Amino acid sequence: MSQLIKTAEDIEGMRIAGRLAAEVLEMIGPHVVPGTSTGRLDSLCHDYIVGVQQATPAPLNYGGGGGRIPFPKSICTSVNHVVCHGIPSDSKVLKDGDIINIDVTVIKNGYHGDTSKMFVVGKGSILAERLIRVTQEALYKSLALVRPGCRLGDIGHAIQKHAEANRFSVVRDFCGHGIGKVFHEEPQVLHYGQPGTGMELMAGMTFTIEPMINAGTFHTKVLPDGWTAVTKDHKLSAQWEHTILVTPTGTEILTARKEEDFRFLAT
Ligand code: MF3
Ligand code: CO
Ligand code: CO
After folding, report:
1. pTM (whole model) above 0.90
2. Which ligand is nearest to the CA of 75?
3. Low-confidence residues of the chain, pLDDT below 70?
4. Closest C-alpha to ligand 1, atom 2
5. 213 C-alpha vs ligand 2 centroid, how far in Å?
6. Taking every pair of C-alpha atoms in the chain, what is the biggest distance, in angstroms?
7. Whether residue 105 has its Cβ less than 6 Å from ligand 1
């Protein structure tokens, strides 16, 4: 069962799962270099999650049923024009100038931590670097708004405004989500919208914000593998994701990495 407001015990479990997910991204960074395959990144993350963290990679075999193909790997690796849900493969070898989103979700003691970040392989183009930066800025601008009384439309609007001010577009086909003992639960967290609309945030809610921003139009399509979402125009896409808790005064970033500075937040 999914539940909107988490208990103190749930929150402690979410802190642990969130930290583990962040630590996987910290671990994998040095391995994201030209010549490495996304299949190798997957197996390194899988072994770390299972062997070191004694946790479970949530994507592995996720989302089957109803005729759908379950996700076959332990992380998502989305390269260049792949928007999200890229399937790692030994034949997908990273080359200089590629950009890649690595999306990690771990389950520890029944709780989920879900987070992703962008990496540049070698040296990226000016456009790629700008798209990645603007997407992270959009996530951070939304995080700065989170507190009780803020509404989901305020979050979506902040992201959309920053993306479009930079002549990029916001993907509509995928959204953030409530998270806890259930991977994807209510509410849906859209990355576009109108201020003052949508659900009002309450202390104890845990959800993800995970904007996907495109260099071209926002349209996407899913490849015949049933998972890989790509931009229709084959232009670049970037994404950053955190799992967060709404606190009485602001937000706690459950998947914060050491490299991040969150002094701009309300609390
Ligand atoms: N981690 C993704 C998210 O942010 C979901 C991946 S589901 C998978 O919600 F099956 F593709 F792994
Ligand atoms: Co997510
Ligand atoms: Co994710």
Report:
1. yes
2. 1
3. 266-267
4. 103
5. 15
6. 48
7. yes
